[in-house]
Amino acid sequence: MSTNLATCNPAALEIVVEACARNMPAELHIQQPDGDVVTAWARMLGCQNELVQLDQPQAGSGSISLAPRQPVKVILHVKGRRYRFDSTVVEPHARIRLNERMVVTGISLALPSELVEAQRRADFRVSVAGTHDIPVRFHSLTVPAPGPVPLDVHRFHGRILDISTGGMAVLIAQTELRTIQRGELFYSEFILPEDDQPLAPICQARHTSLVRAGTARLVGMQFMPWIGCDAKQMNQRIRRFVIAEQRRQLRLRR
Fold first, then answer.
1. Confidence of residue 6 (pLDDT cuts 50, 70, 90)
2. CATH classification of the domain holding 16
3. Distance from first CA to last CA of the chain, Å, rounded?
4. How many Å separate Cα 129 from the centre of its chain?
5. What is the percent of the chain with per-residue pLDDT over 90, rounded to a whole number?
6. How does DSSP classify residue 111?
7. 199 vs 147, which has greater pLDDT?
8. In 3-state terms, what secondary structure has residue 254?
């Protein structure tokens, strides 16, 4: 049901209503009080009184605790296109009427005034924040293929938050790495869960932002080809992990 939705532009409203009518899943990026971002999923249930109604968000580690006015980024896939909008939590424990007989507990978000069509990722990506602790080692590069490593090269560590065959998002403490520039190259090494051999891709920093009240840095990194890494084998191993982890998280949300 959709009522009193005059503040949302017609094109955006049509997409949101379509997603609610089909009870489509939404990907939620929820800003935590410490500045961290948690990825969760919820089904769209309805639009009413300037609110978007969803069922209770679930992450790989279970349900997510929310508070009023908490920032949320919502990503939808409607008719083969990917949309996103920024919102805030209005009611973290909303009573949502599905029909005359059924009422469920979900969440209400502020209805957005507009949606942005987002570029579809070329690779499936899975969040491992809260489900796996995957440390990753780095050292800086000045050329796109590592040779002998200088003794004074800068080395640092991080934790993988999400990963795909195309790249990964990494959380790095500010004590490990104070600054990073877009386009910088790094040698990396990590071991995926249930794998016994390390992966060693070269990474290029694509974007970065401060999180956790400025004590850590979230860095999006793209994997780059180089002669010392079998790209086909690496992609197969990452893809196998991503698919298995997606299935595991879906089972937990049922």
1. very low
2. 2.30.110.10
3. 25
4. 9
5. 35
6. P
7. 199
8. coil
Q: Within a 13 Å sphere around the CA of 192, how many CA atoms are in the beta-carbon half? A: 24
How buried is residue 19: exposed, middle or buried, by Cβ count under 10 Å (0-12/13-18/19+)?
buried
Alpha-carbon distance of 74 to 82, in angstroms, equals 11
- Residue 198: predicted pLDDT: 93
* Measured distance CA(249)–CA(254) in Å, rounded: 9
**What are the structure tokens assigned to 87, written together?**
């919102």
How many domains, the chain? 2
Note the pLDDT tens digit of each residue in 32-77.
Answer: 776 667 778 889 999 888 899 999 988 755 567 899 999 999 988 8
149 CB-near residues (< 8 Å, 6+ apart): 139, 187
pTM equals: 0.58
Contact criterion met (CB below 8 Å) for 162 and 128: yes
In contact, 28 and 57? CB cutoff 8 Å: yes
Mean of all residue pLDDT scores within the chain: 83
Identify the domain containing residue 78 by its residue range: 10-118
In one-letter notation, the amino acid at residue 197 is Q
